[in-house]
Amino acid sequence: MGSTTRRLKKGEEVNVKTASILLAGTVLAALVAVPSVAQDLPGKDLKIAVVLKTLANPYWAATQQGIEAKAKEIGAVVTVQAGTDESSIDEQTNIVQAMVGQDYNCFIVAPISNSNLIQPLVTAAQKNIPIVAGDAFDEAALQAAGVKLTTYVTVRHTDAGKAVAEDMVKRFDGSGKVALIGGLAAHPASIQRLEGFRSGAGGLEIVQEQAADWDREKALNAADAILRAHPDLKGFYAANDGMALGVQQAVNNAGLTGKVLVFGTDAIDDALNSIEAGQLTGTAAQFPFLMGGLEVEACLAASQGATVDPLTAAPQALITSENVAAAKASAPQPFFEYESPIAKLIK
Q1: pTM of the full predicted structure?
Q2: The domain 47-155+288-315: what is its CATH number?
Q3: Are β-strands 235-238 and 204-211 bridged in parallel, bridged antiparallel, or unpaired?
């Protein structure tokens, strides 16, 4: 479990006042330094509890960095905790249960499953503490429990999968056999990314789909078996980059580098490096650093009484060899202009 707590300040300005003091016939010049600390920053009263899936995944580590950077900018206090890995459901649930009993006035949460954090958050909801989601919840279960989210900061996962499929269609001249590697079988993001791929697949033949639980080694083994079963396979799409890198390793092991194309999702650093090195073909980029910042902005806006849209759509883009240099140069921010829809709500 990872945990960090810190007082975050945008910076310390010093006001210098000069006073002339007459003492025993001598004029003394005195410089008095007065630190302003975080008193004038808009988030000075915010104490935010953040519970992510795991900090072992570079995607969630980048989210943490974005959260902490934005908290520093607005003068908030933030505590970040997470499970050991993306299967640590009970551990994550217990973390939230403990933090709800403390004096936080906003929660940012990314549940491992779509329901494991609902019951622990009931107490926070009853106290009208803002709750910002960084991953999907079961909407019906939320309503049944009386838990209302301030906003869900996300991308349109179907768009990510569709963008990959459409790129594959172009590369394969409209036809060819492909395989899909999903995350946890019931996870909404994985389901939606694969649905998006199917919607854009056109004449591509999806010969196999395999859940690899967001695990790189499981994805490698699944890809190895798929390649042996389908020697004429042309490409893979994996629902995150960790799994895509495992798939790419299987492709390399089979001597098929450049012949079987591999796409991932998230645009983590290792994936961008792999694209630049001529390994992975592409990744459907999300920008977790930016999304973490949006989540903190949602806490601030809600604390000021603003109504935030229930869904805050973050930007995404398909990254290939054609634009990977620009993506790396601007990381962790997008390589295109983006205006936060929440920032305009903040006083």
Answers
A1: 0.82
A2: 3.40.50.2300
A3: unpaired
